[in-house]
Amino acid sequence: MRIGKVTAVLVAGLMLGACGSTGGNLFGGSQQQTTQSAAAQPAPGVGSPVHNALFGQPVPEGQQTLHANMCPRVEIRDGSAVWRQGGEGPTELRYQGTITDLARECRIDGQTMTIRVGIEGRVLVGPKGDGGRVSLPIRIAVTKGLSTPVWTRLYQVPIDIPAGSPNVAFTQVEDQVSFPLPEPGDLATYIVFVGFDNQAPQPDRPRRGRARTAQR
Questions:
Q1: Are 198 and 23 in contact (CB under 8 A)?
Q2: 121-131: pLDDT as tens digits
Q3: What is the residue range of 83's domain?
Q4: Would the pTM of this model clear 0.85, i.e. be above it?
Q5: What's the structural domain count of the chain?
Q6: Which candidate, 96, 100, 80, places its Cα nearest to that of 33?
Q7: β-pairing verdict for 148-161 and 132-144
Q8: Which of 18, 32, 97, 132 is a good FRET partner for 2, with 20 to 30 A between their CA atoms?
């Protein structure tokens, strides 16, 4: 099927509407309502960190970028927007991470859909924390409907914190969220969930990634 025809069929499928969503058990918790949807909110403005990190990249030959209305919405799963490291109580806090914004871009190549997911957040240094490298356990999961898993992966995102800095902002782009192109009638039910996986073990040596930090 030619790309132009695929696009037209996908538009028709998306006009059927979308379902309500939960993250299921993909993030180590019970099903709960989500708190933020990139599809339901204005797109990040030009010049925002997550926008600059995600958009404006060249499209590989043979691929087509889809309009935002044709791209599955991306949401922060309720209860997974904050990550904490340290003992109990505010005085024992080492680091606290928060996800503040999301963006996504969808491309199709033949019968494969690839979603590039942009994540923006901040890491706060607590009383027990200091400069150095901290690894954030961020999970991206794609589901069909309420709980049918399609694709999931845990990322350990390394963030470098300058000594003496109270907090740093970060952006991260993951561009290998790929799965078989859904049937037109199913695409509107697909959801991309992003959040901290608070049950993920912390690695001794976080692997290097493409995190970007900015001190404020």
A1: no
A2: 999 999 999 99
A3: 3-215
A4: no
A5: 1
A6: 80
A7: antiparallel
A8: 18
